[in-house]
Amino acid sequence: MNAAPATFAAIPFVALAALVALVAAVAVRSKLTGRGIVPGMFLWPLPFAALLAFLGAWCSMGLVSIEVTAADFAAYAVVVAGCGAATLLRRRVFVRIDELAGVASHLLRAGRDVVLLALAAALSVAALEGSWNDTAAQIPVLFACFAVVVVFIAMLALYFIGQRTGILPTIAVVACLAFGIGQHFVLLFKSAAILPSDLLALGTAAAVSANYTYELTLRIVHALALAAVAIAALSFIHPGFSRDRRVLAANVAGNLCAGALVAALSLGSFNSVDLEEALDFTYDVWMPQLTYAQKGVIPCFLAVLQDLPIEMPEGYDPDDAARTQQSYAEQYDAAQELNPARLEAEAQFDAMKPAVVVIMNESFSDLSVYEGLQAADYTGPTFYNSLADTLQRGTLMSSVVGGGTCNTEFEFLTGNSMAFVGTGKYPYQLYEFSQVDNLARQFGELGYETCAIHPQPGSNWNRDLVYDQMGFDQFLTLDDFPEAEWYHYGPTDRTCYDRILEMLREDPDPQFIFNVTMQNHGGYDAGSVPAEDLPNIYPEGITDAGVLNMLNTYLACVQASDRDLEYFVNELRNIGRPVVLVFFGDHQPNGAQDLNDAFYPGEDEFTHSWREFMTTYFVWANYDVAGNDQVSAWDELGANALGAQMMHLIGAPLSEQQKATLTARSSVTSINALGYRGADGMAQALDADSFYKGTVEDLADMQYLNFAEKVQ
After folding, report:
1. Among 266, 268, 549, 620, which residue's CB has the most CB atoms within a 10 Å radius?
2. Domain 356-673, CATH 3.40.720.10 — does that match?
3. Does residue 100 surpass a pLDDT of 70?
4. How far apart are CA 699 and CA 416, in angstroms?
5. Is residue 49 a contact partner of residue 232, using CB atoms and an 8 Å limit?
6. What is the CA angle 354-355-360, rounded to 5?
7. So where does this one cross the membrane (predicted)?
8. Residue ranges per domain, the chain?
9. Is the predicted pLDDT of residue 35 greater than 80, yes or no?
């Protein structure tokens, strides 16, 4: 870390001393001249004294970047101390306005207040963006003006609530400054954007904040100076109070009503206007910090905030939803009381407590579902398809294709479906999971040690926060694999498997391990895998070189995963302890849409899209699970039901939600964000008016009870 010389700290401290001396001199003079001393004489210079002391203290600790020169310190000291000194002129200005008669003084005050609020709002936005955004000057005028209007409206509400003084609007200045500086450090430390869901996890953020070094940059110093000017402008807002108590009381009531009205109108507009549609933009859900930089923090943050609410099902009643879930759960219990296989599995699980390992393999899928690839002699991942002793296997209906991994893990871990969250949403980015039931917490309550593994930065998809909120005891990230062997775009699957095997061998206690691999992540550019690994599959009808490169690179990745899976399963067979393995792909690769379009032109839109959301799964055990013949029974599942089905197969205790999910499958066998498959084998859109509509509505009600009620 290269820091500015500690001697530079003397510059703001000298300015601070000068400001304190000036305030004291003005106070003494006011006392001697009989004008009296008022609180504002000391209180308004206080934030400027704090800003000077802050920069001086930070510099003395070596926490100001070397790019900040002595001239920058001097300019900052002059601006901030000058703003503090300017506030001492407030009283004279107010007296001059009060000397005006009647309507003129009111109009002048109103005009002054609007101008100063607008100026402070513009300066606050400039401080927000300038503190972190290198391309702030390139933000489109429309978006910059929108941000200023938003801050102005917030200040206006605070202005009225604060009885038409500039005191409360300073909260908006400080909030903008703090958000901008916070965004700088979040981008620096996590390469991420501050999202609404992050504000729900401030406790977690505070817990880890001590691990970082907070060095102020020149941009932040400039932002502090802009905030000082904004606060100075607000200090000159003052209504001039009436001595008549009745008039004063009426003014107080009127101002509070005006503030409430501004707030209500603003909230109503926010709830009724789709910002992305109104401003004609879309934020990047994978890297929202890019959209923040291009369009500005405020419009993007508010657009993400609009995505938070989950639509309540029509006619929803929490008591009715609870009764519905209880009814489904009772049907499950009644059926299992007569099922000797389940009873045997329960007794075995209680006695054995097998380790449970879940591999959500990045972009792993069996593209032989595309008949055009079968015709080109592609039969899918060899070992994966040959594994004959699984407890169950089949098609897994994902809610994403080509990306959005976190939504598949959300569905698997929580048992909730994206069908009832809403399209285009990413729960890991939007919600707080401390109260949400999930497999990590469920296994923890059964006495298991729980560990999540993802060999990438922990901040990806907010996993570091979400996994902690879910109750995982441990989270291994890329930092825990310093010597990992890489293939394609990430550490190999085998790197993860070796770590899991090590954990299983070293700790005989029950463990639940959830591993999100990285090896197969897109894109699939030519040259990103060894040439000798390419399968050279050239399906008829596809001539685009880019699509063919994507296809063969992707299939090489799947082959590599298949080899590592064979190694892992063989090691588990001989590990000497009972282990359950759940393996599934999170989604088809990016580029699957090109294959689908080439192989199946002219299909109706729903049928065509449904195929792209098919991936694959199996549940396997290295021991004979009681009550199961382990002959690889086939069944299609939604990702939300896979966890419950696994628990059912191995005899583990199920939650009421899991029991209800499994019971509902007798009617709706699988569901995802696109639609569902009914017991008649027909796939339907979510809003289809089918025989199974009532079950879909029950599922929506139960999920709102189990998820939306807990995060909204």
Report:
1. 620
2. yes
3. no
4. 9
5. no
6. 135
7. 6-28, 40-64, 70-89, 110-128, 140-161, 168-189, 220-241, 248-270
8. 6-306, 356-673
9. no
